[in-house]
Amino acid sequence: MRNFVSERAQEIPPSGIRKFFDLVLTMEDVISLGVGEPDFRTPWNICESSIYSIEQGTTSYTSNKGLQTLRDALSRYLALHYNLQYTSDHEIIVTSGVSEGLDIAIRSVVDPGDEVLIAQPSYVSYAPCVTLAGGKPISIRCTERDHFKLNPDLLAEKITGKSKALIINFPNNPTGAVMSQTDLKAIADLVIDHDLLLISDEVYSELTYETRHCAAATVSDLWQRTITLNGFSKAYAMTGWRVGYLCAPKDLCDAALKIHQYVMLCAPVMGQVGALEALRSAEEDKNSMVNEYRLRRNMFVAGLNRIGLECHVPEGAFYAFPSVKKTGLSDVEFAEQLLKEQRVAVVPGSVFGLGGENHLRCAYAISRKELNSALGRIETFIKSL
Amino acid sequence: MDEKDLELLRILEENSRLSADEIATMTNISTSEVEERVRALEASQVIKRYSTVINWERAGNGEVSAIIELKVNPERDYGYDRIAERLSRFRQVKTLRLMTGTYDLQLLVTGKNMQEVSRFVSEHVAPMDRIRETATHIIMKSYKENGNTFFEQTEPERLPYSP
Predict the structure, then answer these.
(1) Tens of pLDDT along A14-24?
(2) Looking at beta carbons, which residues of chain A come within 8 Å of B25?
(3) Is the ipTM of this complex over 0.85?
(4) What is the pTM of this model?
(5) CATH, domain range A7-42+284-383
(6) A302 contact B CB<8A
(7) According to the model, what pLDDT value does residue B41 have?
(8) Residues 6 or more apart in contact with residue B88 via CB below 8 angstroms
(9) Contact A185, A193 (CB under 8 A)
(10) Which of A243, A350, B45, B54 has its CB surrounded by the most CB atoms within 10 Å?
(11) Which residues 166-185 of A are in CB contact (within 8 Å) with B?
(12) Domain limits for position B21
């Protein structure tokens, strides 16, 4: 029999955390800092309104683009919060999470042979999605010295005649790095000079602790060449609802919509109803969750530095990204031994690509009590080395 | 009262047993400043005292609580204030509020048993001057007190790892 698996599917690597996942399932009493999602439940007003809509029989397909009411609300929300101007009729598509938004964004702009620049460490799906679209992912290293911001010089080095697009994600998973308007301006100059498209995944935009988020499309003339991706998962603790959105100028949005209508048809309607309620009434819930993350971040990062894992203060998302260099172990060794000996699960930074090696991603989206226990266990582990 | 004070109050309201050191690392306010601010908040009676939320039903001491509503003739020059002050002196009155609506004052009263609560209402509250009418509601079960639910909540299942 032939091998039916396509070359493209063979080409993409399996997820780097699979091995840990299998190991952790065999263990008890594990404190997991490996979970990239909020530990809060979805605010009840959001759940309630979705439940009510199901009772009312709102269970059909929606328009491909998503509910008009949700797109209208998103258009107002983006203008109000980020000064982002997207019209609800032609420039916003509601997607099944940012994951889908990313896929259709990449597929609507990448031709075979195109190079797509990816600022790393990055979320694990960017490079495989580029590969699946026939493009060539090109990693750009973000360094600890730059606090994991994208350095324009390191970007410039990797730009070639084949470069088509740049993917960034700030606030960043896994580093928690944030780019200010000034930081983005330097990137914008390069993107515009080399006529690149920018794909900006801003799913952590609500989770910033020092400054308000600066949306990439508002910097310089980037708007016309930017696809903005965002979603409800992180800000409103709605990961399982699968609701995100893609915003772009009409021609780009139309192209993405063609793919979206064939592969997804529409995002789940219950999720869309919940998302609309989130925009209407969950501002306070969101603020109190963000405030709690900030308290945990301060406590946890101070704790990591105290026990000897150097960590810069991440300005956004809910990840700390400490270095294990001083322990003499690699990130994978550290993560494996820590899990086996002290039952604390962290994700080795190398899973997230260039620049992630020798670091650990620790999600502080767990209670302060558990964070304190985790710190105690990590300290015991380090002392035993 | 500034943003820092409000933040300290929110943290303490949720858990008053955190040490000044712990609060300091969470908020990036120095330990001495935390201590100073909390002292000032105590002195100005913004922080009345530190207490504990107890699920008495689970403790099983058999105490009975009741909401008592009162219609009151307000007093010239004083309105409801003087009668409210008199009522508030009773040990049995845990909470006392002036409200809009059909009734004027609302009391939360606790007692060892139903007889004690009803005797308190009929002997001490109802006969007071200016009280025109009372309505007593015995509390059968408490589901949520001051933001704390008394339901058994199972932790939602989360994947141990997610990207």
Answers:
(1) 877 878 888 88
(2) 298-299, 302-303
(3) no
(4) 0.91
(5) 3.90.1150.10
(6) yes
(7) 97
(8) B96
(9) no
(10) A243
(11) 173
(12) 3-43
